[in-house]
């Protein structure tokens, strides 16, 4: 059982480049989220999804796009990388109640992104 | 908005019981309270989840009073390897689209001393 798989693990981008961070889960979880964590800081919510075809913005959505075409995959796209986006990005998934609440996340191991 | 408030840091000695309290005054009626542990350079790890009263598993206990406006994570007999950041997490209310989003607070940095 792979859980939540994030690729790549490390990435260096030049300012202005675009890229997609991949996230896949094999637990049939409805709820998926992307967080970023800057050095020594807490986690901030970028975007989240409660099911295929449904996405919503978190605390810091600017500069990022997401889509959810399948239950398993939730890619995060950086449109035009900036040094302020240097961070560790975590993808997480969980089962969701009928009311839409979260039954506890499983996190991926993260993608360390540096923008120069 | 179900903002959470926790102590920024705590120190404890090996073998002691550690209790970390989280305040979540505006928790939604149908939402759960979940606690996570995070080590440096790793993603958070689920510890325990509860809705009301007391929940216990092999690593921790979670105490939730009747009004659910706070919760306490209890770690029995901590060891050096329990040094980590601990987060409580509840839903941040419904978005305009009707979905619940989950926003982490600052967490509590627990340092276990020998």
C-alpha Rg of chain B, in Å? 14 Å
* Helix/strand order of chain A: EEEEEEEEEEE
Order of helices and strands of chain B: EEEEEEEEEEE
Shape of chain B: globular
Distance between the termini of chain A: 36 Å
Strand order of the largest sheet of chain B: 1-11-8-3-4
Q: Give the terminus-to-terminus CA distance of chain B.
A: 39 Å
Please report the number of helical segments of chain A: 0
Counting DSSP E segments of at least 2 residues, the number of strands of chain A comes to 11
Number of strands of chain B: 11
Rg for CA atoms of chain A = 13 Å
The pLDDT mean of chain A sits at: 94
Helical/strand content category of chain A: mainly beta
Strand portion of chain A: over 45%
Proportion in helices of chain B = under 10%
Mean pLDDT of chain B: 92
Write the layout of secondary structure elements.
The complex is a heterodimer of chains A (116) and B (114).
Chain A: E1 4-7, E2 10-13, E3 19-25, E4 31-37, E5 43-51, E6 54-57, E7 64-66, E8 76-78, E9 87-94, E10 106-107, E11 111-115
Parallel strand pairs in A: 2-11
Antiparallel strand pairs in A: 1-3, 3-8, 4-5, 4-9, 5-6, 7-8, 9-10, 9-11
Chain B: E1 9-13, E2 18-23, E3 33-38, E4 45-50, E5 53-56, E6 61-64, E7 70-75, E8 84-89, E9 91-94, E10 100-102, E11 108-113
Can you describe this structure?
The complex is a heterodimer of chains A (116) and B (114). With 116 residues, chain A is an all-beta fold. Chain A contains no helices and eleven strands. In chain A, the strands form two sheets. In chain A, strands 2, 4, 5, 6, 9, 10 and 11 form a seven-stranded mixed beta sheet that branches. Chain A has a four-stranded antiparallel beta sheet with strand order 1-3-8-7, with no helix packed on it. Chain B is mostly beta strands and 114 residues long. In chain B, the strands form three sheets. Chain B has a five-stranded mixed beta sheet with strand order 1-11-8-3-4, with no helix packed on it. A four-stranded antiparallel beta sheet of chain B has the order 2-7-6-5, with no helix packed on it. Chain B has a two-stranded antiparallel sheet with strand order 9-10. In chain B, a hairpin with a 4-residue loop joins strand 5 (53-56) and strand 6. The N and C termini of chain B lie far apart (39 Å). In chain B, 39% of the residues are buried.
